[in-house]
Amino acid sequence: MKRCVFAFSVVAAFVWLALSCALAIPWIRDVSAALPWSYTVWVVMSIALLPGYLMGAMFLSNLLHARPARLPSVRPAPVSVLICARNEEASVYRTIRSVVGQRYDGPITILCVDNGSTDRTRAEIERAASELGRQDRTILLLTCRRPGKAHALNEALAHVGTEHFLTVDADTELEARALATLLARIQSDGAACVAGNLLAAEPKTWVGKMQIYDYLLSIAAVKRYQGSYGATLVAQGAFSAYETSAVRRIGG
């Protein structure tokens, strides 16, 4: 079935590409009167025709693939959440609060790594640990002095003692059931990692509003297209779940 859907979406996109090429010929002819013909063809192909083909194939594939079935409740196993922060004093407390407030019955260990901050990030993490920590929500402050998010993540990974862990950026806020939904997917699929869905929250500028569509296209649509064929290339660090043993096997 998946092969048929993929083949149909590719063929239909090629038909759309052929129609687009036919419509673009007068445009190319007019522009090439002022610019070199080869340059004109390259620009039109790069800006209009090739992106149109790729978007058409992805759109049709996503339209024809059924949405993933709603999963049963996740088994409330202990889980770790990794939050790496460098100069994130304005947002890290809210991020930790959103993790603590997850509608998830299992215990959550929140590993917050200060990656050489020069502001009040450490103080904000300590405040969160003091004010938000409880028996089933442990908040730990770790230190990684070597600059770089990968190094900070590996520092946190060394302290993970659960079957699965999640990464959450220090400026990401989770919806109430985000953690449970992502864990249910990775547990049911048996995948080594599962990418979450992201949106720009309450954008106030035009650039921020444009970011909504960037996320919908580059994360939501592309990830769904790749995931339909078991070929997701990237699990973004802002919100994803991982099988701990699999990550350690490949070296972190």
UniProtKB/TrEMBL annotation:
PANTHER family referenced in this protein's UniProt entry, alphabetically: POLY-BETA-1,6-N-ACETYL-D-GLUCOSAMINE SYNTHASE
Signal peptide extent: none
One Pfam family cited in the UniProt record for this chain: Glycos_transf_2
Protein name: Glycosyltransferase family 2 protein
Transmembrane segments: 40-60
Family: Belongs to the glycosyltransferase 2 family.
Gene Ontology molecular functions: glycosyltransferase activity
Keyword vocabulary terms for this entry: Glycosyltransferase, Membrane, Transferase, Transmembrane, Transmembrane helix
Positions of the Glycosyltransferase 2-like domain: 80-250
